[in-house]
Amino acid sequence: MQSLEKTQTRSDGGVSMKSAMPWIFSAVMLVLMPFIFQSNSAITIMNQMAITIVFALSYNMLLGQGGMLSFGHAVYMGVGGFVCVHVMNWEIFGSIPLPLLPLLGGVFGMILASMVGYFSTRKAGTVFAMISLGVGELIAACSVIIVVFFGGEEGVSGDRTYGMPFFGVEFLSQIEVYYLTAGWLLISALLMYLFSRTPIGRMANAVRDNPERAEFLGYSSRWVRYNSFVAAGFFAGIAGGLFAINYEILTEENLNLTTSGSILLVTFLGGVGVFFGPVVGAIVFTLLQTVLSLETEIWSLYVGALFVATVMFFPSGLAGVMQLHIAPIKLGTWRLLVMPYIITLVPAIICILGLSGLIELLFHARHTAIGETEMTLFWVTFQHTEILPWVVFAVKAVVGFWLARKNAPQMMDAWHRANKPDGADT
Amino acid sequence: MDLILVNLIDGLVTGLLLFMLSAGLTLIFSMMGVLNFAHASFYMLGAYFAYQISIYLGFWMGLLIAPLLVGIVGAAVERYGLRRVHQYGHVPELIFTFGLALLIEELVKFIWGNDQIPYQIPEILEGAAFSISSYDIPAYKVFMIFLSLGIFAGLLFVMTRTRVGMIIQAALSYPRTVEALGHNVPLVFMGVFGVGTALAGVAGVIAGPVLSTFPGMAFVLGSIVFVTIVIGGLGSLGGALVAALIIGWMTTFAKAYNIRMEDILTGVGFTKPEPIWDSAWADLWTLTSPQIADILPYLLMILILVFRPYGLFGKRDV
Amino acid sequence: MRTIVKRGAVAALSLAVMASAAFAENVKIAFIDPLSGPFASTGTNGLHQYEFAAEALVNANGGVLGGQKFEIVGFDNKISPKESLIQLQVAIDQGIRYVVQGNSSGVANALTEAIDKHNRRNPDSRVLFLNYSAVDPALTNEKCNFWHFRFDANADIKMDALTDVMAADSSIKKVYIIGQDYSFGKAVAAAAVNFLGAKRPDVEIVGNELHPIGKVKDFTPYARKIVASGADAVITGNWGSDMLNLGKSVIDNGFKGPIYTYYAAADGITAAFGETGKGSLRLVSEGPLNPIASERAADYVKAFKAKYPDGNVSQARITNVIEMLARAINDAGSATDVVAVGKALEGMEHDSLWGGKIMMRPQDHQAIQDVHIFAHTNEGVQFDYDNSGYGMVVESSVAMASADAPTTCKMQRP
């Protein structure tokens, strides 16, 4: 029982070095990242990650903390972004420093959320989801009709360098934009985290779990949900403003169902039960989308399969899986897990690689031009007409699967043992 | 007058197709409380399977076999996928079906490629069945009407006159009691899911040649199906039919008659700003009914959800 | 926990960015168009046409500047403007100086502005934008810039040529215009009204309609309206599935007259129309395959079909892009000084592989070339589309169309 005291978290509301550590660490990492990855495209990808993180965190305020599944969250980010781009085109932009622009996006995202939330948050669950879908589709459809605000098919574009110089910085280069985005990321994430610790944030959790009981305590679940919704709209608008600064163009794509759907994917992949889950999801998804798509044409098949696997086998998401390991680490029993993991997970990875090799071969054989039988996979070039690659991948898949299957019970057993405080056998 | 009749027929075809898609969905929802986001994907699978079968065995065999295949796939999804996720709650179930929709689209692209595939109307049904003044009514559309009405009649018969139908109706409202009475409710669930998806498959088989068969066809139709069942009332077959017909006629008539906002506004008393392209209200003034025809169902859905969350004929509380 | 994830990100990113070793010997050209998603087939076919043109027309003849070869690098933009900007940055980081794009005027608009800003802010990594298919007139009018060159006839030029042909046909008294509701569809409609009004004021425009782009599944109500209006001809700029569905619906519901289109050919559309399109479907475009201009052109098409049996030479102007770029690089004496290449490119007059000349106007960087009206048919077809037996045969031609058309472009030269 000796280690349980260490596992208790402070609940008296103070700020300790321990709880501030992750934030300080993240701040330091954000500052150092551009020195590790120096190319402009890497910085662009990191900017995209930062924007997605803010957006996903705001979405999790609804899904994870409030239990509200929304299919139209993209409109708040989109509208916030559109307002910012319009402001970039106005005369008055010359007297506004660029770093303040996302705030404007946040305000307008919040205004739209307060209008829509008024009638959509009356009930949670399926009604809420359907209304959010309807509103999302409606606004996305209106975007090609209301050309004045949404710019039609080409969208609206602006130039961020026309703003008032901020301490002499005109934001001409990518790296300056990166630090602005990273700064806003840190501030927004901190604010959202603090929001979840306030009474209203806590009540949102309560309303998610048992609305009837919350009502008995005297809280109106309807207004609690409404407040969460408006706050989520605010932060989505900030993400929209950051998007406007980064890409200087907003189009119908920012409002549509695909974007709303992908943020659901991102958040769920990362894990809705943990605060930093969406952060993990956003990073992994952006990497998959930009980097994986350079390697293979069927990257979206892998993403779809990963998503379904997540829902079926580990619905707590990647962050949830990581969290499962806190207990063994704190209890000091994690050493028990190392060997079983290696003998189970390494074959599993080999199996997955083998399967993906087979899929790539199939795809290449079926869909490429005649005469182009050469393909490169895992840094090896070969012809898809040769029998050897097929055999190699098939063997990898089968052997990997068999080995993983054989060793899985051992891993489960080790897991159970690792979770006992004194490492005792079951 | 002729044009009204023609538009009525056109709207009827659209509405009946939508009904076939939404009938299965509303049954599945009222049975299991699961809103199946992948329902339109089964519609797409129906079209693709039928195309593949029709290459070797002809259109009619495709019409017969493809829905069966889709139903089997649907039942398997329920048995091995949905049942597993059910324990985690409603939201993960929804997310699972959402992910499934994504995955099915990717698989279709993987197997058949990204292009539109040449799934054609059978020769015997090509051409016009009859004409109303100068408007041709294609024979295929008449076929679609009769098939959909036939399926609706069949469904009604099974649900209200057969023993299986009685059990299903009971399980729709009181699944626990039915289970306590000794019926194999999980089997009923699997069966209903299979039949529901098979219905979507039939819709795909007959809509494929007309609405074009390509990997995005599920996405294009997906949200309107949900709108239909929400307007009609979740769980109500009759409601789904009425809502589908309303949507079919509403969109057809809005497109057929160019009602211009300009005329309405000048009739009320506003004057049109000149030149129109510089005005901030240009979009409002140039609005015509065909432009907004496809978003009218969403407006209707939101109104219904706000004022009458049960939908038109809904039995179960959403 | 964050450390692990961030370390993983470090590894993955550095692998990706280092994976592309730049060969100093090759002149790289970035092809930014959809290679996955609903428009993948058009994009992939375009990529194949570029790769083939670079191989057959430049590399086989020794390359440029005494030995440097053209290398086409494909980037998938998934038809999204945001993704295009990311891929543009990736391409620039790989040291690529030439960007080609064409599918979607929306993406082209985003790219031309982004490239203009980038070139202004980063004078030592400037790029040229060779637009081979986005025909929104704005790109060479109010949105023009020195770095953008358009190789396709824009929407106004095509309409000018089309209305010349229609004006000569006295049997056309009523015309119905229908298009997709966005800038391109609106541009086509506006141009049609203008040019018809000037050339044949007696022609009555019985319908001028825009429908939501990519959203209409069933065109029957629109087809009914067209038949009801008594139109003799239909003009539309629709592309992709909108073109296919509109065309089929209109023909199925009883319309018998000519349908003048911008994009009713190849990419599965010719095969899907087949017999139904014969006699009605028309196309206004450049780059004729039937009749073929020369032996050399015929050999080119045959070789392309041998390598890509399922592909089509659907965007013939791609050969002009490659050939003119090669000439400009040779004239400028450098492949990295894009200002010099740009100056060599503007004002260039070139003999097109498909017959006739092509001239790049210096005032707006719009290429002027012969524009033809084609008919969809299976008679006299030497080179068909989609292996369907049907192809596009020239019906009439306008030489050097709109050579003197005005422009609002105020180009600022570096």
Per-chain topology:
The complex is a heterotrimer of chains A (426), B (318) and C (414).
Chain A lengths: L3 H4 L9 H20 L3 H24 L10 H15 L12 H20 L5 H20 L1 H4 L5 E2 L16 H24 L1 H11 L1 H6 L4 H27 L1 E2 L6 H14 L6 H19 L3 H15 L3 H8 L1 H6 L3 H33 L6 E4 L2 E4 L3 H32 L8
Antiparallel strand pairs in A: 1-2, 3-4
Helix pairs in contact in A: 2-8, 3-8, 3-11, 3-12, 3-13, 4-5, 4-11, 5-11, 8-11, 9-11, 12-13, 13-15, 17-18
Chain B lengths: L1 H31 L6 H19 L1 H28 L3 H23 L15 E5 L2 E4 H23 L1 H11 L1 H6 L4 H27 L5 H16 L4 H20 L4 H8 L13 H4 L3 H4 L3 H12 L11
Antiparallel strand pairs in B: 1-2
Helix pairs in contact in B: 1-5, 1-6, 1-8, 1-9, 1-10, 2-3, 2-4, 2-8, 2-9, 3-4, 3-8, 5-6, 9-10, 9-14
Chain C lengths: L1 H17 L7 E8 L6 H19 L10 E8 L4 H13 L4 E4 L3 H17 L6 E4 L16 E3 L4 H14 L5 E7 L2 H17 L4 E8 L8 H10 L3 E4 L3 H13 L6 E3 L7 H9 L3 E5 L9 H13 L10 H15 L5 H8 L3 E3 L5 E4 L6 E3 L1 E7 L13 E8 L16
Parallel strand pairs in C: 1-2, 1-3, 3-4, 4-5, 6-7, 6-8, 8-9, 9-10
Antiparallel strand pairs in C: 10-14, 11-12, 12-13, 14-15
Helix pairs in contact in C: 2-11, 3-4, 5-6, 7-8, 8-9, 11-12
Protein architecture, described:
- The complex is a heterotrimer of chains A (426), B (318) and C (414).
- By secondary structure, chain A is mainly alpha-helical.
- Chain A is built from 18 helices and 4 strands.
- Chain A has a two-stranded antiparallel ribbon with strand order 1-2.
- In chain A, strand 3 and strand 4 form a beta hairpin.
- In chain A, helix 2 (17-36) runs antiparallel to helix 8 (174-197).
- The longest helix of chain B has 31 residues, at 2-32.
- Chain B is mainly alpha-helical and 318 residues long.
- Chain B is built from 14 helices and 2 strands; from the N terminus they run H-H-H-H-E-E-H-H-H-H-H-H-H-H-H-H.
- Chain B is globular and about 75 Å long.
- Chain B folds into 2 domains: 2-257 and 292-307, ABC transporter involved in vitamin B12 uptake, BtuC, CATH 1.10.3470; 259-287, no CATH class.
- In chain B, helix 5 (139-161) packs across helix 6.
- Chain C is an alpha/beta fold and 414 residues long.
- In chain C, 40% of the residues lie in helices and 19% in strands.
- Chain C has 12 helices and 15 strands.
- Chain C has helices at residues 2-18, 40-58, 81-93, 105-121, 155-168, 183-199, 220-229, 240-252, 269-277, 295-307, 318-332, 338-345; strands at 26-33, 69-76, 98-101, 128-131, 148-150, 174-180, 204-211, 233-236, 259-261, 281-285, 349-351, 357-360, 367-369, 371-377, 391-398.
- In chain C, the strands form 3 sheets. Chain C has a 7-stranded mixed beta sheet, sandwiched between helices. Chain C has a 5-stranded parallel beta sheet with strand order 2-1-3-4-5, sandwiched between helices. Chain C has a 3-stranded antiparallel beta sheet with strand order 11-12-13, with no helix packed on it.
